[in-house]
Amino acid sequence: MTRAPIVLITQRVVTDMKTGERRDALDQQWAAFLSQAGYVGIAMPNNPQLVDVFIRNLKPTGILLTGGNDLVAYGGDAPERDAVETNLLEHAIQHHVPLLGVCRGMQIIQHHFGVPLKHVDGHVQKKQTVDFCGKAIAVNSYHNFGTADSNDRISVDGRSSDGIVKAITVEGYPIRGIMWHPERLAPFREQDIDMMRALFTPLSVPSALASLPNALQALA
Q1: Among residues 57, 74, 69, 61, which one has the least CA distance to residue 9?
Q2: More exposed terminus of the chain, fewer Cβ within 10 Å: N or C?
Q3: pLDDT tens column, 179-202
Q4: Through-space distance between the first and last CA atoms of the chain, rounded to whole angstroms
Q5: pTM for this prediction
Q6: How many Cα neighbours within 13 Å face the side chain of 124?
C-alpha cells in the first residue's frame, strides 16, 4: 500500500484558566479536510527545539500554518508558536517545501517578508466576497489584522471589496497564503481541496511553480 503524503500542521496555543496550563489545540476538521485531499496531517507541538526533529523524521510533502493566536508583534501572547512557525517557514524557503498559510498563517508569511499589518474592521464574517485571481468567490473571514499593501516579494492573488489582501503567493517559492478558513466550511469546497493539491503535488520545483498559476486560474 502506498503511503499517503504527510503534511505538518501547526496548532494554536490556549491557556487553561483553571490550571494555567498552556496547551496546543487544533480544529478537528483539519484532519478531515486533509484526509479528503489525500494527505495525512501530523500536528506539530509548539516547541521550537523539536521542529528539526519532526522535519528530519517525517520528511513532509507540505507544511500548513493554521489560524488562531495573534502574532506577538501585534499583541499576541504565544511566542513559542511564532518561533515554531518561523522555523517552518524558513525551512520551506530554504528547501522549497510547499507551504500554505491560513489566516494567521498568511499573516506570519507577510510579517516574515516585511509587509506590515494593521487593525482592520469588518473582516469577521461568515460570508464575504473576494476577488480571487480575477473571479468573485464567496469565502468566510475571521481576522482583525490585515493590509491593503504588499511588496515585490509577495504577489497578491485576492482582495476583498475594501481592498484588504486575502490571498498571496511568495515570488519564486511554492508558498501561498489565504485569509479564509477552508476547514470551517461544510461540506468542504472542492476548489479549496484542489488548491491544496495543486500546491502540495510533489513535482520538481520549476514544474510546480510553472503549473501553479494555471491551477489557480482554473480554481477561481
Answers
A1: 61
A2: N
A3: 999 999 989 999 999 999 999 985
A4: 34
A5: 0.89
A6: 6
